[in-house]
Write a structure and sequence with these properties.
The complex is a heterodimer of chains A (182) and B (432). By secondary structure, chain A is α/β, with parallel strands linked by helices. Chain A has helices at residues 16-19, 30-35, 45-48, 69-77, 89-98, 106-111, 143-151, 154-163; strands at 2-9, 54-57, 81-84, 101-104, 117-121, 126-129, 134-137. Chain A has one domain (2-163): Aconitase, domain 4, CATH 3.20.19. Chain B has 16 helices and 20 strands. Chain B has helices at residues 5-11, 23-27, 49-56, 83-99, 113-119, 151-160, 185-196, 211-214, 218-226, 242-251, 295-298, 310-313, 316-326, 344-352, 355-362, 412-421; strands at residues 14-16, 19-20, 34-38, 41-45, 70-73, 104-105, 128-131, 145-148, 162-166, 170-176, 205-209, 235-238, 270-275, 282-284, 292-294, 305-309, 336-340, 365-366, 387-390, 406-409. The chains are: A alpha/beta (182), B alpha/beta (432). Chains A and B meet through helix 4, helix 5, helix 7 and helix 8 of A and strand 2, helix 3, helix 4, helix 6 and strand 9 of B.
Chain lengths: 182, 432
């Protein structure tokens, strides 16, 4: 899958309170969350972001809270991919789990600026900065994540596995009394 | 084959095709592997559970994998702060009833989740816990591999009893010496985050060890494990020792746990040794938990509010420390001091010990157990330009309210002393 979009550039340690302030956690509606995305950091972002735009950030993007509302808000706002020098781990797994593309690519993150055009090839992990005429290789995903991403996220991945009975050993019978702690 | 605590804990829970692996296979698990692991507890709260419930409904299963394993706590915006949060709690309450979940904790029987679960004996050493709350790493204090995940992970874990995990590399931090008076777990962990940075342990497990750690009570261990995420860690782990065993015995719900220690030749990405006896009380300045100084170096900055509570410092020992300073003193006339005991039980014990009376006589406000002010939800939201000293865990811009407000993170002694002084002070400036 190849996507091309405009860059919104952010710095290091962008936390999930900045991506989606906690005062908006009283709803889980993606459309509403999208309207508050990055509102204190880039106040015009939610109104101006176009479908397919990319976020490019420095180190430790998405640090802080585990709120899935943060990647949900970015995805619902139309962000196609987040490219960063590094990610905080909960944000990273949340994004992959919900099917929001995330790439670790320090060189692309260092060079891109707001308004540049980036082309991202998720299959090869190549990031091309069209504005600068540069190409970079992102950090490859481990094989398990390739599978998870190919399935479209953790919910479709799990549905497939449940259908092929991959979890037989762990599931208690429906309505059975709970297992006791070992 | 030598293993770190993280490798042991995840290795012992490894699944292949949804079934447990042989013990020998678990003992060969090393950092960097991606495993599917069985989970012993799955946790979510009134903010993260509604999203998890929505995703659970898409999985095509009727019931959770084990009703005893799922714990839902209404703690973030409770008692319901507005209609929208009331609706979220109603969603969680309905799901708990439909699924017949015995571990749903509502207002009046609840606490802040990470104070509540250990005190109810719901976390066992050696277990694996996933929680849709980043501070789920708190239970590492009990020798559990406990980590924060998102709502979709929780949905899948509720359905299958499993989660995918990358086995983290480990960072070993040894604290030596005996901490001075007024230096507690919060000061030790703030100092560490100040040294290694907010991504100093990103994707890693922190193993806390050393003579100063061996001597720490469980309350301080919980505080330290709780803030491992503030250095980017997946979990903050403590070995299981006599202090752990005594705590579990007091909760009355667990047999004596097996000792759990890392192997002597386990591999660490980095080792730190910190002399705890040389540390003064610490404070994290706005707007990062890594922006840490000794309190005395921060200067006497005037403040508007003090919050004492949270999953970091809302336990009985924390309230005792605050009360030691507030007893017979008054909160400064320009400061709102808000004390939120971490659970119903902590509130009851604080009442029986006379701590609540100390706080009320000092001019502090007491509220129910809630995460409220920590994330700018309710019960102490800051106005533009206001400054708070808080025993919570994050001081990101806008975390407790207006983006132009400021949060200074400290332990309960510094918070209480600053409430009395009306500005940031070290405890010894107020109390002997």
């Amino acid at each position: 899958m190849i996507g091309t979009g405009r860059v919104w550039k952010l710095g290091d340690h962008v936390d999930t309170d900045a991506i989606l302030p906690a005062k908006h956690l009283t709803t889980a509606d993606p459309k509403v969350l999208a309207t508050h995305c990055l509102e204190d950091t880039l106040p015009h972002f939610a109104a101006a972001v176009a479908v397919g735009d990319l976020l490019v950030a420095g180190e430790n993007f998405g640090c802080g809270s585990s709120r899935e509302h943060a990647p949900i808000a970015l995805q619902a706002a139309g962000v196609s991919c987040v490219v960063a020098a590094s990610f905080a781990r909960i944000f990273y797994r949340n994004a992959i789990n919900i099917g929001l593309a995330v790439l670790v690519c320090p060189a692309a993150a260092r060079r891109a600026e707001t308004g540049h055009t980036l082309e991202v090839d998720l299959a090869s992990g190549t990031v091309a900065n069209r504005t600068l005429g540069e190409r970079y290789a992102s950090e490859p995903y481990p094989p398990f994540l390739v599978e998870l991403i190919a399935a479209g996220g953790l919910v479709p991945f799990t549905r497939q596995r449940l259908a092929s009975s991959g979890f037989g050993g762990r599931r208690a019978a429906p309505n059975s009394p709970g297992r006791t702690e070992p | 084959m030598s293993q770190t605590l993280a490798e042991k804990l995840l290795g012992s829970h490894a699944l292949v095709d949804g079934r447990p692996t042989a013990a020998e296979a678990g003992r060969s698990v090393r950092a960097g592997a991606i495993l599917e692991v069985s989970v012993d507890r799955v946790l979510a709260n009134d903010v993260t559970a509604p999203v998890a419930i929505r995703e659970f409904a898409k999985l095509g299963v009727d019931s959770v994998f084990d009703r005893e394993a799922v714990v839902l706590v209404a703690d973030h915006f409770t008692p319901n702060k507005d209609i929208a949060s009331a609706e979220q709690c109603a969603t969680v309450r309905r799901f708990a009833a439909e699924q017949g979940l015995p571990h749903f904790y509502d207002v009046g029987r609840n606490g802040i989740e990470h104070v509540l679960l250990p005190e109810l004996g719901l976390v066992s050493p050696g277990s694996v816990v996933v929680g849709a709350d980043s501070h789920a790493c708190t239970y590492g204090a009990l020798g559990a591999f406990a980590t924060g995940v998102g709502s979709t992970d929780v949905a899948v874990a509720m359905a299958t009893g499993a989660a995918w995990m990358r086995v983290p590399e480990s960072l070993r931090v040894e604290f030596e010496g005996r901490p001075a008076r007024w230096v507690g777990g919060k000061d030790l962990v703030l100092f560490l985050i100040g040294r290694i940075g907010v991504d100093g342990a990103r994707y890693q497990a922190i193993e806390f060890a050393g003579p100063a750690i061996d001597a720490l009570p469980m309350s301080a261990r919980f505080t330290m494990a709780n803030m491992a995420i503030e250095a980017g860690a997946k979990v903050g782990l403590f070995a299981v020792d006599d202090v752990t065993a005594a705590y579990l015995a007091a909760t009355g719900s667990c047999a004596k746990p097996a000792a759990l220690r890392p192997d002597p030749n386990a591999t660490y990405v980095e080792r730190w040794t910190i002399d705890a006896s040389a540390l003064e009380p610490q404070i994290a300045l706005p707007h990062s938990p890594g922006n840490v100084l000794p309190v005395r170096a921060a200067g006497h900055i005037p403040i508007d509010q003090v919050v004492i509570g949270s999953c970091t410092n809302g336990r009985l020992d924390d309230l005792r420390t605050a009360a030691e300073i507030l007893r017979g003193r008054r909160v400064d006339a320009h400061v709102r001091c808000i004390v939120l005991p971490g659970s119903q039980r902590v509130m009851l014990e604080a009442t029986r010990e006379g701590l609540v009376e100390v706080f009320l006589e000092a001019g502090a406000a007491i509220g129910p157990p809630t995460c409220g002010p920590c994330l700018g939800g309710h019960m102490g939201v800051l106005a533009s330009g206001e400054r708070a000293v808080s025993t919570t865990n994050r001081n990101f811009r806008g975390r407790m309210g207006d983006p132009r407000s400021e949060v200074y993170l400290a332990g309960p002694a510094v918070a209480a002393a600053s409430a009395v002084a009306g500005c940031i002070v070290s405890p010894e400036e107020v109390a002997a």
